[in-house]
Predict the 3D structure of the following.
Amino acid sequence: MGSLSEYRRKRSFKKTREPLPERKHSRTGHRFVVQKHRARNLHYDLRLEADGLLKSWAVPKGPSLDTHVKRLAMAVEDHPLDYADFEGVIPEGEYGGGTVMLWDQGTYEPENGTDVASLLQKGELKFKLKGKKLKGSWVLVRTRARNWLLIKHRDSYVSDEDITETFPRSVTTGRMLAEIASAEGGDVEKAAAGDPVSTGRKKRKR
Ligand code: MN
């Protein structure tokens, strides 16, 4: 299941340096990535490999380690596997124009079955993340149409820290959004609006 036709249709590959729409499989078959994306709005894109594609959700508030917090996750178009290594700038005026950070990367294991595509079809995927920042059990459950909820399940990785505030940097390059924009010809001021004001303590967000 799944297709890269919507991904292809939305982009001009003469203008953007995002990966080409090619289906391929990783060694594990279960890569995941979370990209912090300062486009028109700041959001976190969660992508899980399934059938040679990255199934994708835009999570406006990002993941929460608190089991009581249900984060809205809007299903978006499937992305190519190579997108799991993309960090950089999408030109302004292009689809998703803005700055993209590799916020977390790793592998995942489905927990309520093995056929991820069919679990997603049914609207519920329980999975264990093995990332640098995100670990342990989570669930994605569809509420209606493209709306899903991303919820942390109870385990030893539960916390009331706001991990988006405590770990705001790229997992591969250590850069903040503004540093990525600056190095790659993006809109630095716009990107900086997605970075924390300071790395000091902040009130926890729900
Ligand atoms: Mn995005």
Summary: The pocket of manganese (II) ion is lined by residues 37, 39, 43, 45, 58, 96 (CB under 6 Å). The first helix runs from residue 5 to 9. The two ends are 34 Å apart (CA to CA).
